[in-house]
Amino acid sequence: MIKVDSLKHTFTIGKKDKENRIEVLKGINFNIQSKEIVAIVGKSGSGKSTLLQIIAGFMKPESGSILINNTEIAHFSEKESAAFRMNHFGFIFQNFQLLPGQTVFENIELPLKLKGIGHQVRQKKVQEILKKVGLVEVEDHYPNELSGGQQQRVAIARAMITNPPIILADEPTGSLDSQTEQEILLLIQQLNKNEEITFVIITHDEEVASIANRKLRMSDGFLVGGTQYAF
Amino acid sequence: MLFKDQILFVLQHMKKNKLRVTMTVLATMIGCSFLIVLASVGFGIQETMRNEILNQEQITQIELWGNETLTEEDKKFIEEIEHVNVVLKKESINSTIHSKLEGREGDSNGTFIDISAQKKLPSNLSEGRLPETTNEIVVGFHYAQSLLNETDKAEIERKSKAAQEEGGYYDGADEGYKGEILNKKVELQFFDETAEQYGEPISFTIVGILKEPTYDWYIDSSIVFHDELRNAYPALITSPTTLIYVDSLEHVMPVLDELKEKKYQVYSQVEQLEELDLFFLIFKLGLLFIGTIAILIASIGIFNTMTMAVTERTREIGVLKAIGASPNLIQRLFLMESTFIGLLGTILAIGVSYIISFLANAILPHIVSYALSDENIMNHDITFSMIPLSLVIIAGSISILVAIFSGWRPARKATKIQVIHALRQEL
Description:
The complex is a heterodimer of chains A (231) and B (427). Chain A is of the alpha/beta class and 231 residues long. Chain A has a single domain (2-226), classed as Rossmann fold. Chain A has helices spanning 48-56, 78-88, 104-114, 119-133, 148-160, 178-194, 206-209; strands at residues 2-13, 20-32, 37-42, 63-68, 71-72, 89-92, 166-170, 198-203, 214-219, 222-226. In chain A, the strands form 2 sheets. Chain A has a 6-stranded mixed beta sheet with strand order 6-7-8-3-9-10, with helices on both faces. In chain A, strands 2-1-4-5 form a 4-stranded antiparallel beta sheet, covered by helices on one side. In chain A, a hairpin with a 2-residue loop joins strand 4 and strand 5 (71-72). The longest helix of chain A has 17 residues, at 178-194. Chain B has 2 domains: 3-55 and 275-424, no CATH class; 95-236, no CATH class. In chain B, 54% of the residues lie in helices and 18% in strands. Chain B is of the alpha+beta class and 427 residues long. The longest helix of chain B is centred in the last third of the chain and has 46 residues, at 327-372.
């Protein structure tokens, strides 16, 4: 499903005449199968977030290849990346990234709106997903009226409303207390099992990583451990 | 994203920033109203002057100049031009004609007119008929007023002095012959170019009185003679002119062009109308240019509002991009917002401009009349401000285009926002 080959990326920082190049990814290779939960773990600065951002198409890699369902996405234009994300990825962020001016319902239906789906279908789909994540009673609330756990549930609902095959999660429980964290992790496991969604979770928390079928460990721009399938 | 959803999305954001959007709409409205009202003055004055020209009876008339009288051959050629109704030959007598009636005297200008051609034209008489014989005449509307005796002359002098002292003038309307002048016999004396009497005084019968002149200030005491009388006075110095009457206003220019092509010296007030239109076109363009500056100033407001909106919504733009919004969509949403601001400001401006225009036309004549101490201004049909549809379309287009253009750069900026940087922003 996801095949990453020889992925390299370097950040250039500082002023033009005093540029400093930092190699963040130094040739990453891995393969993720459909319906897996894969955790990419590593310390801060190991390059795991950069890896997720490149897979998501938020930035282009310096070199290497990323195949998603046999489509090479590493060199997509911004427009192509956006269209690809809309159809293939859902996102869960550490700080939820909900739109504060929109209600729970509106936040969840946003990806459907972007896809150009009509009002009636949206209503039906959002109602279904609200039931799945247990947010029916707060559909008219604004994000700031919800607890952290509820906000992350909204983010998860938004991520899966378009039935994407892959959900990319960047520290999905990083802003939650341990009890809420457990609830969210359980929800992820249920969705993986029931909806057959592939999850790629970036985390530094071993407990979060424990729900994954596989762990890919990163350190200093390299994959240093974990189970990698042979290409 | 469906177009309807895009509109709702944009309106939702505008609603959230109600105060800022309202102030920007107001700025746009003021700029656009200024443009429309300013240009409407040009349209208004042009309309007044056009009406002034069009209201003149001679609008379908072409004047043919020349030192010599038109030959029969020329007359025939002109008469055969399509849309020419009548070719009227006139000869204005260069010297004055002295009138005597019941102890009163007066001097007038005289004209020989082709009576057979004149008969084909709509009547220009207020009373009576056209001359049928050489000893019949038609006189101007104020002819009787010009016939004075010594008492009248003294009275006019006295009244004129009094009027001058008050800063005005007296036109002698209260003096002159007061009886019925139609069918009266009047004795006329012609003069030659050296002001010597030419021929003996002859008695003529007044058979018609011309209509009152269009202009209030014009005193018409002229005398119209039958053209056949011209042969009896071969030594009279006259200025011949020919008037060509065209069937309608729209055919004046083609006839005029054809005559010019044949090297005739011609003039029509329609030409004056064209010159007037050209002058006012340039005048109105100048006003539009000045007015556009006001809109450009308002556009700075739109630019600021949109830049603020992009800055404030950076994180939101990041989220939208992350979940699949294309750069084009982001740009479109912001452009739509600036367009709505421009559109709303323009619609309000059109309404406000019509109100200002109406008030200007209702109030300004009173102010001008008061300032100039001239009550006659109130009687004139003066348009101070006029807003035709074309002005609404031009000003509206300028305003909306400027609004879109103002939103362009902020919208482009929004598309350039990096998802990663945007998502890192705090609320």
